[in-house]
Amino acid sequence: MIEIRFHGRGGQGTVVASKILADALAKEGNYVQAYPEFGVERRGAPVFAFIRVDNKPIYDKSRIYTPDHVVVVDPTLVEAIDITDGLKDGGYIIINSPKKPEEFKFPDKFRVFTIDATDIAVRHQLGTLAAPIVNTAIVGAVVKILKLTKLESLIEAIREGVPLKQEENVQAAIEAYEKA
Amino acid sequence: MKKVIMGNHALSYGAMLSRTQVIAAYPITPQTQVVELLSEMCADGTLDAKFIKVESEHSAMAACLGASMAGARTFTATSAQGLALMHEMLHWASGGRMPVVLGDINRAMAPGWSIWTDQNDSLSQRDTGWIQFYCSSNQEVLDTVIQAYKVSEKLMIPSMVILDAFALSHTYEVVEIPEQEKVDAYLPPFNPPYRLTPDDPHAFGGLTAPDHYLELRYKLQKDMEKVPALVEETGREYEKMFGRYLGQVDDYLCDGAELVFVTSGTAGLTARVVVDELRAQGIKAGNLRIKLFRPFPFEQVRSILSRIPKVAVLDRNISYGHHGVFYQEVKSAMYGLPSQPAIFGFIAGLGGRDITRDSYKEIADYTLKHDRPEEEIVWIGVKQ
What we know:
The complex is a heterodimer.
Chain A: E1 2-9, H1 14-27, E2 31-36, E3 46-54, E4 69-72, H2 77-80, E5 92-96, E6 111-115, H3 117-123, H4 135-145, H5 151-161, H6 166-179
Parallel strand pairs in A: 1-4, 4-5, 5-6
Antiparallel strand pairs in A: 1-3, 2-3
Helix pairs in contact in A: 1-4, 1-5, 3-4, 3-6, 4-6, 5-6
Chain B: E1 2-6, H1 7-17, E2 22-25, H2 32-44, E3 50-53, H3 57-69, E4 74-78, H4 80-85, H5 87-95, E5 101-106, H6 120-123, E6 131-134, H7 138-155, E7 159-164, E8 172-176, H8 180-186, H9 210-224, H10 227-242, E9 249-252, E10 259-263, H11 267-280, E11 285-290, E12 292-294, H12 298-305, E13 310-315, H13 325-334, E14 342-347, H14 357-369, E15 378-379
Parallel strand pairs in B: 2-3, 2-4, 4-5, 5-7, 6-7, 10-11, 10-13, 13-14, 14-15
Antiparallel strand pairs in B: 1-8, 6-12, 9-11
Helix pairs in contact in B: 1-2, 1-7, 3-5, 7-10
């Protein structure tokens, strides 16, 4: 079983990112469980989304406290909260950032990856410069880095699950997948 | 077809596949999305049903009852205070023998104001004469809605299909969506023996003098007693058609166990994981998840638990001044049997506090260390 925690801010599509990833994983016959933080979300405030994936039914219905990996949709959260809370040794930290991984100071027991999902999203006209919708781009990178699904499954999941600008979202995911 | 859907939408799909004809509901977190999706289905023609907007949950149930009396298959959904506001109408539904199906997202009662899960909202309605099913996965939610209509309409008793707030309502899981034609074959149209129609006028719910009231209640109880066998029969039939058995309880490795957890809801699936972990350490544990709570599956519970040395009942609810409600039911089921387990009652997870694998390990530790419970209620995770 793999457990992943997403960090974002309310309004960035973090929950949708975990849902798209769940859809893509399910297309390949996996069992998935994806859930938002249990409670109320406020625009701009830190939010969480979680996903469990396994090749057999998932019976553990308690929350995820010790994720295998974390995905940081909003890079300002790296300074604001402890995004490594509970992260298992050897865990991957995937950050939406134009910086190089080595520019982030995390303990050596974690592996850091970066992808400039904001730049990709803006160039594909997803959201606005002030409020880009980066979720499809970041999931493109996550799928590649964690070797979770084939790109085709993700593309299919985006076409079915994203309400607007399907093709732009697909292209953003492909670009992030290739760059990651 | 497999789809990744949240528990709220599992209720909506269940109602849609059951070809519900009238839906009346009032939104409340975390239930809101159930009726949002149903209203969209009604608007775009996916579901040929009348969606009635109302000003409160009391009115929602009243509208469902009017429609049910007229012979329509009806659905509503709510949570917590919303269910409490329906209370009077819940008695009308069961007493009037109207087989409404209601989805209740288990949410703790306020105050303190909460949108998180526990079972006190639905268990407060225990004695209203409704059948209650507690579900543990989104698949089970969808399947149980369809089964609930079949059971309810056969016996003319309403059903509640109950799921945990957030842990199911807002959690996405892979769900097999059955084909409409197969559901139609399993669940024929609702055809009540009496209905409100100008062609054949009847009065419903009229004044009932003492010389008849007792018999009405006797009949309701006698029909309630038929529910366990009917759940078994319709659950087997469902398995034959859809490959998933829908029973009164879910028995996981109870046979020959030294310790059995009695559980319900999503916590009842987490318990399975702990059973596997305990067995890996050489402790013969089992899990008896109660799916059908009203009527209580006395016969199955007795036959499974009577040879078990120790039983630990986990309640995500409390009857103040007494103890956990499932604990009461299990003790009552075992009362007077020649061979009785030591039965321990634990309360955890009120107001959405997480019930984790560690919670169960604490429960297992206590139960294995004590011959008898030292207190009526053992609380798990109370901050001192």
